[in-house]
Specification:
By secondary structure, this protein is of the alpha/beta class. The protein has helices at about 20-30, 115-120, 170-190, 265-270, 305-310, 320, 325-340, 350-375, and strands at about 15-20, 45-50, 85, 90, 105-110, 140-145, 165, 205, 250, 275, 295-300. The longest helix has 26 residues, at about 350-375.
């Protein structure tokens, strides 16, 4: 932005990275690269999306930047604020360290349910042992998309490598609104929407063993999931405590199995299904006690009360929740409208959300009609 012969003139550089590049942005800021050779700030704002509490470990020998395992990526420090590591005794934060503290950007950390189950993202807003909440500083926001997967499944939903159908919940429309909010924050100083994420203090963040996921027929309980161990950090003593067990804290769920708190887009606020950020491996590929990496799950509600009773499904059916398609679509529109007022959606995207909700309704109710006809 300062070179007179630059191809593009930009007053406010932003950086966005998703998944691996989101992890890269976390390490980029942590290692001090947001300061250039003349001690100037490089990016005014960054948005590491789906990065979890992880990096990529590029700048070291024998690195495995494309690994999907928690233990090769999730390393201390996990949070932006300086904290004391109970394993190594080191005191650092992603932003509060000698390299990164001077030229801090404004940051939106955005993430799905998968990052809680597979990337230890709860540690980005708790103490390293997971015992206390830690609020983000004034230049940082956390946005957790309740029920969203890391890799978005196709619609209509279908199973691929998981025991459940792939989660089709698409959060990208909300990212559009957050990008607009970030620009206003940097350009005009307009505060962005408040952070939305689960917390220990109100019971919306719990140990994985304490999640109240319903007993659904044919669905393995996520309470059997196991946490990984932390990865190495060459900048800290004892390699950052590599190999130390990581605590596993996840969003608490309602009686349908959908997260109670955080940013609940209409798909979850007015649900037709249970949406998860995890999906155990399919019987066809084995290893069914493990999650298939980065894959969420989708379990639709039964269409009618007799259907759910026949299946032993404890979740209310669609007909027990909503009087009609029109009522359901209206509730979706109301939910989207509230999010527009709060800054989490753009008004121009509401029509697409409502249209998709109608398609989803038609898919599930048509399924019920087809099944009844086949039974006759």
């Amino acid at each position: 932005r300062t070179a007179p012969d630059a191809t593009v003139s930009a007053k406010y550089p932003f950086a966005y990275g998703s998944s691996q590049t989101g992890r890269w942005l976390r390490d980029f800021v942590y290692e001090g690269f947001n300061t250039d050779e003349r001690n100037r700030r490089v990016f005014d704002a960054v948005m590491p999306h789906l990065g979890g509490a992880a990096g990529v470990l590029l700048n070291q020998r024998w690195s495995t930047p494309t690994s999907l395992l928690m233990e090769t990526a999730t390393h201390f420090p996990f949070s932006v604020a300086k904290q004391r590591d109970p394993v190594t005794g080191a005191e650092e934060g992603l932003l509060e360290n000698p390299r990164a503290s001077e030229n801090q950007p404004r940051i939106f950390y955005t993430y799905s349910d998968t990052e809680y189950w597979e990337r230890g993202v709860a540690l980005s807003h708790t103490t390293p042992d997971g015992s206390k909440d830690v609020a983000p500083p004034a230049n940082v926001r956390f946005y957790h998309f309740a029920g969203a997967p890391h890799n978005i499944g196709r619609f209509p939903p279908a199973a691929t490598n998981g025991a459940l159908a792939d989660n089709p919940y698409d959060l990208k429309l909300s990212l559009r609104a957050l990008l607009v909010a970030m620009e206003k924050w940097v350009r005009d100083g307009t505060a962005p929407p408040p952070s939305r994420y689960p917390r220990l203090q109100d019971g919306t963040l719990v140990r994985a063993t304490d999640i109240a996921f319903p007993n659904l027929p044919g669905v393995t309980s996520p309470r059997t999931a196991f946490a990984g161990v932390r990865g190495p950090n060459r900048l800290l003593a004892r390699d950052g405590g590599a190999g130390a067990p990581l605590p596993l804290f996840v969003p608490q769920v309602d009686r349908d199995g959908n997260p109670l708190a955080s940013l609940r887009l209409p798909e979850v606020a007015v649900p037709l299904a249970t949406y998860t950020g995890w999906n155990f491996r399919s019987n066809t590929i084995g290893g069914t006690e493990q999650f298939f990496p980065l894959l969420g799950g989708y379990v639709p509600f039964a269409s009618t009360k007799p259907e759910r009773e026949r299946n032993g499904d404890p979740r209310l059916s669609i007909e027990e929740r909503y009087k009609s398609r029109d009522q359901y679509v209206g509730l979706v529109q109301e939910s989207a409208g509230r999010l527009v007022k709060e800054g989490y959606l753009l008004a121009e995207d509401v029509a697409a959300i409502v249209s998709h909700a109608g398609e989803h309704w038609d898919l599930l109710t048509r399924r019920a009609t087809t099944t009844s006809a086949s039974a006759r």
